[in-house]
Write a structure and sequence with these properties.
The protein contains eleven helices and seven strands. Strands 3-2-1-4-6-5-7 form a seven-stranded mixed beta sheet, with helices on both faces. The protein is α/β, with parallel strands linked by helices and about 325 residues long. α3 links the parallel β2 and β3. It starts with a helix and ends in a 7-residue tail after the last helix. It folds into two domains: about 220 residues, Spore Coat Polysaccharide Biosynthesis Protein SpsA, Chain A (Alpha-Beta Complex), CATH 3.90.550.10; about 80 residues. α6 runs parallel beside α9, α8 runs parallel beside α9 and α10 packs antiparallel against α11.
Length: about 325
């Protein structure tokens, strides 16, 4: 009887296996930093495969990465979003570690971030940036912009994130293979965050020390240009992922303007029997009809979005969970 019970327990126990880990590094002109990043990951995660995705660099980034033992992939189409799309498509792994190739993220707790996916069941672990204290690496302007954009996403999508624009993240295979990247540039972090919120994935934030860039390297981020792009991405995703809310707001604004324009005309008609402000009456009527049309569009697109989200969830569930 003991042997039978032991056999039953053995059959029921979940099979454990060694998870494959892929470090994926998007790079553009980071020859002065990429060696430090590759060597750092080689020391912190000796079991991981390190992939450098070179985005048409002109300073020898690919050659430096290859010399330090990384597998180099070349992406001709410029933009971080285009690189991330290729990374998730071309690399096969159970756990994906993505960080910028500028050597600004400390790797002291990278194992804890990976365990968030492999042991605790999170689909995405985000490294929230904390200054190392030696210099103002995380500039006040960038910090303020991050707070405003992260707050906008929280207002529209119910986000609980505190550093939406962090480039230091760990993903499950489920996440990586169901992420429909559409962004071209640095707005990709916004898409990564909203994709997790849309499918109500389990996510975790852990603090990570944010260091100064190596001397001689420069940031590719344009504060105002990329900030506007990120804001535009938030608005675009709000219209596509929350169409009912967007068109309800539009309908309410149109209806309020229509009422404000139309009430004086109606009151004047009841008092005199005349409509002297005919253009205003026509405008008020047209705006009310537009409000009703906007409401109908919102309802229709809401059901389309629900069907699309259901298809995404089914695709997500079709991929086995990450378990070590």
């Amino acid at each position: 009887m003991l042997n039978v019970a032991t056999a039953a327990v053995t059959r029921l126990a979940p099979a454990t296996r060694k998870l494959s880990i892929a470090v994926i590094l998007p790079c553009y002109n980071e020859a002065g930093a990429i060696a430090e990043v590759v060597d750092g990951f080689r020391a912190a995660l000796p079991q991981a495969e390190i992939h450098v995705f070179d985005n048409a660099s002109t300073d020898g980034t690919a050659e430096v990465a290859a010399a330090h033992g990384a597998t180099v992939h070349r992406v001709a189409l410029r933009g971080k979003g285009n690189v991330v799309r290729r990374m998730f498509a071309d690399v096969e792994a159970d756990v994906y570690v993505m960080t910028d190739g500028d050597a600004t993220y400390d790797l002291a707790n990278i194992q804890e971030m990976i365990e968030g996916v492999s042991l605790r069941g999170f689909d995405m672990v985000v490294g929230t940036r904390v200054d190392d204290g030696s210099s103002p690496t995380y500039r006040k302007g960038h910090r303020l912009g991050n707070r405003l954009l992260t707050g906008s996403v929280a207002l529209l999508f119910g986000s609980g994130f505190t550093d939406m624009l962090s480039g230091h993240r760990v993903f499950s295979r489920r996440y990586a293979k169901t992420f429909p990247a559409a962004a071209h540039g640095f707005e990709i972090e916004t898409e990564l965050t909203i994709h997790a919120l849309e499918l109500r994935m389990a996510c975790l934030e852990l603090p990570v020390t944010y260091k100064a860039r190596p001397e001689g390297t420069v940031s590719k981020l344009s504060t105002y240009r990329d900030g506007w792009r990120i804001l535009g991405t938030i608005v675009k995703l709000f219209t596509s992922e929350r169409p009912l809310a967007f068109f309800l707001i539009t309908a309410a604004l149109l209806a309020l303007v229509s009422i404000a324009l139309g009430v004086p005309v109606v009151l004047h008609y009841f008092q005199t029997g005349l409509v002297p402000r005919l253009p205003t009456a026509v405008l008020a009527t047209g705006m009310m009809l537009s409000a009703l049309l906007s409401l109908v569009c919102g309802v229709v697109l809401h059901h389309v979005t629900l069907a699309r989200q259901e298809a995404k969830r089914l695709a997500y569930l079709a991929i086995p969970a990450t378990r070590g």
